[in-house]
């Protein structure tokens, strides 16, 4: 046996990778099987679980992965559309759900940007390795081994990464659709509009959380009392009103939450528009209740489009 043959036998996976790389041109599904690594070489005959060897178990794992791969086409993203609608975008105030969509898309965009440049860098690395391998006569054996193993790793990484890239794309497209749907509730707003809407959005959040406190213990917790005071609401009076609501809530015939939304909206409108609790609070603190106009983005966003594709500000 020659020295070169002995070297080749030392790395069982290398010959399998060499074979795969030589015949593989479409790398979108490139994969080195677990059994090509753990089922060969020093681990192959080592005793493993179930009274089997590493070779036996790695072959079973390959079959299990192959059998469940199709699930990745469904669960390769953060949340189902149901979860986005019911759990992640669960604010009573549509403006806050808009903010949440903005934050979620920003995170997904950052992840996709990172994946985009990593993909570009890996493709460049692959091209460099392929170029070096195109002149094997200039390479010693171990350099060729290193390059081909690295090439296999990069190609498999591209195939695996595509699944996660698709998942992030799904999330962004789903969020974009929810953004369009949400425009029916809130659209054509500027940063100043959002500032002016903040009182109602925080009131809604606080009241809903206070109702949960009343349901659980009959009283508003210390933290929610502070939240109400920060907005400008008398916590004791709020507690009295919410206790009455919770009592009536148990007597309602409906199983849905439409009654809760109606009660919260009406109470918030009364507090913000009639009693102007937030304005009183800001004036007591020594603040001008109006937003500082020259540091806010005044262009309207989230515009509704008509059937001609022109936005609601067209012609203005």
Structure notes:
This protein has 316 residues and is mostly helical. It has 2 domains: 3-32 and 74-182; 191-295, no CATH class. The chain contains 11 helices and no strands. Helix 7 packs across helix 10. It is elongated and about 85 Å long. The model is unreliable at 6-12 (pLDDT under 50).
Compact description:
By secondary structure, this protein is mainly α. Helix content is 64%, strand content 0%. About 2% of the residues have low confidence.
What's the arrangement of secondary structure elements?
Layout: H1 3-10, H2 12-23, H3 54-68, H4 81-88, H5 94-133, H6 141-182, H7 191-217, H8 222-231, H9 235-249, H10 258-274, H11 277-285
Helix pairs in contact: 2-6, 5-6, 7-8, 7-9, 7-10
Helix-strand makeup class: mainly alpha
Please tally the helical runs, counting DSSP H or I stretches of 4 or more residues. Answer: 11
**What is the average per-residue confidence, as pLDDT, rounded to a whole number?**
87
Percent of residues in beta strands: under 5%
Features:
316 residues; 2 domains; 11 helices; 0% strand
């Amino acid at each position: 046996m020659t020295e070169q043959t002995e070297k080749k036998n030392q790395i069982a996976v290398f010959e399998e990778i060499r074979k795969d790389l030589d015949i593989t041109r479409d790398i979108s599904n490139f994969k080195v099987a677990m059994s090509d690594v753990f089922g060969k070489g020093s681990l192959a005959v080592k005793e493993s679980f179930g009274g089997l060897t590493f070779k036996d178990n790695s072959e079973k794992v390959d079959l299990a992965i192959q059998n469940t791969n199709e699930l990745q086409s469904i669960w390769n993203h953060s949340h189902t559309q149901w979860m986005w609608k019911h759990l992640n975008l669960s604010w009573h105030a549509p403006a806050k759900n808009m903010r949440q969509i903005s934050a979620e898309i920003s995170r997904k965009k950052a992840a996709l940007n990172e994946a985009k440049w990593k993909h570009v860098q890996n493709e460049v690395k692959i091209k460099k390795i392929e170029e070096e391998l195109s002149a094997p006569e200039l390479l010693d054996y171990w350099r060729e081994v290193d390059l081909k193993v690295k090439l296999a790793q990069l190609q498999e990484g591209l195939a695996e990464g595509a699944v996660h890239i698709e998942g992030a794309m799904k999330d962004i497209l789903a969020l974009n659709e929810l953004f369009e749907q949400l425009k029916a509730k809130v659209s054509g707003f500027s940063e100043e509009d959002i500032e002016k809407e903040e009182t109602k959005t925080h009131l809604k959040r606080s009241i809903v959380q206070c109702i949960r406190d009343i349901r659980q213990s009959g009283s508003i917790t210390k933290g929610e009392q502070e939240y109400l005071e920060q907005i400008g609401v008398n916590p004791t009076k709020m507690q009295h009103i919410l206790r009455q609501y919770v009592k009536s809530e148990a007597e309602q015939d409906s199983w849905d939450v439409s009654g809760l939304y109606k009660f919260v909206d009406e109470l918030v409108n009364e507090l913000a528009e009639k009693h102007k609790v937030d304005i009183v609070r800001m004036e007591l603190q020594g603040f001008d209740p109006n937003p500082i106009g020259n540091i806010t983005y005044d262009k309207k966003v989230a515009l509704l489009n008509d059937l001609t594709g022109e936005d609601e500000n067209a012609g203005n």
